[in-house]
Amino acid sequence: MQTQKEIKNRINSTQSINKITKALFLMSTVKSQKALKEYNKFKEYIGLLQDSILRMENSLEFKVEFKHNYYVVLTSDLGLAGSYNIDVTKKINKVYESGDKLLLIGKKANSLINSLNLSSDDYDYISLDSIRKDGLGELTNHILKSYRKDGYKVSIVYSKFLSQLDTESTVLSLLPLNPEDVQIKEDDSNSHKREKDYYDFEPKVQSLYPKAISIYLDIIINWLLKEADLSEQVSRKQAMDSATRNGQDMIDSLKRTLNKTRQAKITQEISEIIGAAEALK
């Protein structure tokens, strides 16, 4: 049985941890609100951009067959975010096949090297720090090389923001675009109208498309990084809130145990006094 001192030490340590989790919860709340504003600011524009690229791809006279996939795996550098990183790595474990190649972003993606038994030729790595410092140039170059020269279909695996209470690991097709991934949501009448629209691209799509996808990648990846950051902050906020509540439950339980231990000791001392008094009679 634990002594009163041991129980008090556990209560003090748990209270100290709760102070940290509360602080992280507040920080994640503020960061998620800021990230949500950035996310909503570009959401409608992203849908229009995707729609334009999709129209170009549908207008192309040639069709490309892809034998393998190039997956951009977007994780974070930090933990304490619940299942945020785990869900992304689980998703890539499900879709990855022999012959596919990965572009790992974030330190937490390095766990895939061992779990998928990847060789140095099977993956590339870019740190989030280098993206923040040097921009998206290296990242988009990797993607364009894999798509244009190596003939890979390019997709990104990341945590999609659904609400302040929910995120979901998702595979989004970058090149070529999947019509189901376009952010525009339309009613049946608008959708029917768009099917009859005719667009004439100048210059011709064949010459315009390579330049357009470079611009498209810069914008869409920047937006997906913002969305992933939003999902990370939401997941961390939920994890820290849960940890704080669990910590408080543990403190309450330890306090009850402490009171029982103290009461048992008092009862024992009273019994010893009574026993000694009876022995003197």
In what range is the share of β-strand residues? 5-15%
CATH homology group? ATP synthase, F1 complex, gamma subunit
Beta strand count: 5
Mean pLDDT, nearest integer? 86
- The secondary-structure element order is HEHEHEHHEEHH
Largest sheet: 5 strands, mixed
Taken together, the total number of domains comes to: 1
Instruction: Sum up the overall morphology in one term.
Output: elongated
**Alpha carbon gyration radius:** 28 Å
- Identify the CATH class: Alpha Beta
Number of helices: 7
CATH fold-type name: Pyruvate Kinase, Chain: A, domain 1
Unreliable stretches, pLDDT < 50, 5 or more residues? 186-196
Share of helix, binned: 55-70%
CATH architecture: 3-Layer(aba) Sandwich
The end-to-end distance, rounded to whole angstroms, is 35 Å
Strand order of the largest sheet: 3-2-1-4-5
Query: Which class do the helix and strand fractions yield?
Result: alpha/beta
